[in-house]
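Q: What would this chain look like folded?
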Amino acid sequence: MAKKTIIYERNTHYGETFYVCLKDGFQNTPMERGDKCPFDEYGLSMIAVFVRKNGRLASSTTRWNEALAGGKTLTPQQISQLIGRDFYKIFIPNK
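A: My prediction, written as structure tokens:
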């Protein structure tokens, strides 16, 4: 899996920290639904992650949007695997 880069971090109204992870070259990934949609190449080229104040995952969504996943979101373990780094060392909430 290509390297993921955190490019945006912001506190939300609810005190969560919001991150966006973009796969290198995400803008060139064709918008084509694969068999694993929303967790296909296009969907995983951009991931939004919301982290609670306590450091736990609040929610995540792929580029296709979580509605297409039936409300399922990526787990911290899946996100760690995708970005090649430990979720809890990267997604640290602002306090």
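Residues 61 and 67 are 9 Å apart (CA to CA).
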